[in-house]
């Protein structure tokens, strides 16, 4: 089942019309039509493809998944591929692919799954109904604006998670296993969102080109605002990738420094303990020596142990090894 909307003279005229009746509405040059399909086959798109003169290569790309974000130009229409992004409750990045055919009077969206929030796009169109008189450009603006805002929200959320990770790095009792897991998960999410965000710069820039005839003078500032958001999200994503790498390196350096401190302490105490071991071992010889089997010999060995141990302790303490 396809979801449809018809705008006439900038006003929502009909909704939920059958696909077979779309051609009747398109006969009026003042009419703009939106059709939405979810996980269709090429056969499902055959009727509308013939009606709108859609290129077979574009129809094939619309049906198959994992296309790169792009905007292709054909004789009778343009073909758009983009990805929405959102974070679920446990912080996992959810990406949903969308294809769109853009003609002079129609916007046909093809969702690859149910995860794409098409209701939010419709709500955005309803909230900016005063722009509906701009036809397909109005529909395209609402669609791209929602997608780019979703990218921006994801990047902002990832930034907040990275700040939390920064605080854990300098914790008195850091949980290294948890930090490693979170840092790698964040890096993986950043790599995925980067693949989604970066191509959108070229897509939006191409949409705004005058020779594409997709954006009129009234909508130009609105698309420029989308482009600014795309640039900010792209630059933000790049800086966060570098930041996660820096956090990981800082974590390893701090962990190495703490290990060195522990090793210095262990080595220092081992050196101190070695003194009484050496002295008592020397006095444990079964041969006569000065103080052998006498009280004076016992006190002499004890005094040697205390003086040398205290001397080593003071020396290590001065060097901040203890």
TrEMBL record:
<dbReference type="InterPro" id="IPR045863">
    <property type="entry name" value="CorA_TM1_TM2"/>
</dbReference>
<feature type="transmembrane region" description="Helical">
    <location>
        <begin position="296"/>
        <end position="316"/>
    </location>
</feature>
<dbReference type="GO" id="GO:0050897">
    <property type="term" value="F:cobalt ion binding"/>
</dbReference>
<dbReference type="InterPro" id="IPR002523">
    <property type="entry name" value="MgTranspt_CorA/ZnTranspt_ZntB"/>
</dbReference>
<dbReference type="GO" id="GO:0005886">
    <property type="term" value="C:plasma membrane"/>
</dbReference>
<dbReference type="Pfam" id="PF01544">
    <property type="entry name" value="CorA"/>
</dbReference>
<keyword id="KW-0812">Transmembrane</keyword>
<keyword id="KW-0813">Transport</keyword>
<dbReference type="GO" id="GO:0015095">
    <property type="term" value="F:magnesium ion transmembrane transporter activity"/>
</dbReference>
<protein>
    <submittedName>
        <fullName>Magnesium transporter</fullName>
    </submittedName>
</protein>
<keyword id="KW-1003">Cell membrane</keyword>
<dbReference type="InterPro" id="IPR045861">
    <property type="entry name" value="CorA_cytoplasmic_dom"/>
</dbReference>
<comment type="similarity">
    <text>Belongs to the CorA metal ion transporter (MIT) (TC 1.A.35) family.</text>
</comment>
<feature type="transmembrane region" description="Helical">
    <location>
        <begin position="266"/>
        <end position="284"/>
    </location>
</feature>
<keyword id="KW-0472">Membrane</keyword>
<dbReference type="GO" id="GO:0000287">
    <property type="term" value="F:magnesium ion binding"/>
</dbReference>
<dbReference type="GO" id="GO:0015087">
    <property type="term" value="F:cobalt ion transmembrane transporter activity"/>
</dbReference>
<keyword id="KW-1133">Transmembrane helix</keyword>
């Amino acid at each position: 089942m396809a979801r449809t909307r018809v705008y006439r003279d900038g006003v929502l005229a009909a909704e939920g019309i059958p696909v077979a009746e779309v051609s009747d509405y398109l006969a009026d040059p003042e009419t703009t039509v939106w059709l939405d399909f979810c996980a269709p086959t090429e056969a499902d798109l055959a009727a509308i493809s013939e009606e709108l003169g859609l290129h077979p290569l574009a129809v094939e790309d619309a049906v198959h998944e994992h296309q790169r974000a792009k905007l292709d130009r054909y004789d009778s229409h343009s073909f758009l591929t983009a990805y929405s992004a959102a974070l679920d409750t446990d912080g996992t990045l959810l990406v949903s692919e969308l294809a769109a055919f853009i003609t002079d009077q129609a916007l046909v969206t093809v969702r690859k799954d149910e995860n794409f929030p098409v209701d939010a796009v419709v709500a955005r169109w309803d909230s900016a109904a005063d722009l509906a008189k701009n036809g397909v450009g109005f529909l395209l603006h609402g669609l791209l604006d929602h997608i780019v805002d979703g990218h921006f929200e994801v990047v902002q959320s990832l930034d907040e998670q990275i700040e939390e990770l920064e605080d854990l790095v300098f914790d008195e009792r850091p949980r290294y296993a948890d930090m490693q897991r979170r840092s790698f998960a964040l890096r993986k999410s950043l790599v995925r969102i980067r693949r989604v965000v970066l191509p959108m710069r070229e897509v939006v820039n191409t949409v705004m080109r005058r020779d594409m005839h997709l954006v009129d003078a009234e909508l130009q500032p609105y698309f420029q605002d989308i482009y600014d958001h795309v640039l900010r999200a792209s630059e933000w994503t790049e800086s966060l990738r570098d930041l996660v790498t820096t956090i990981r390196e800082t974590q390893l350096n701090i962990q190495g420094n703490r290990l060195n401190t522990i090793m210095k302490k262990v080595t220092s105490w081992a050196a101190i303990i070695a003194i009484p071991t050496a002295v008592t071992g020397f006095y444990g010889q079964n041969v006569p020596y000065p103080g052998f089997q006498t009280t004076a010999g016992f006190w002499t060995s004890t005094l040697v142990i205390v003086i040398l141990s205290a001397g080593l302790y003071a020396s290590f303490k001065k060097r901040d090894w203890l």
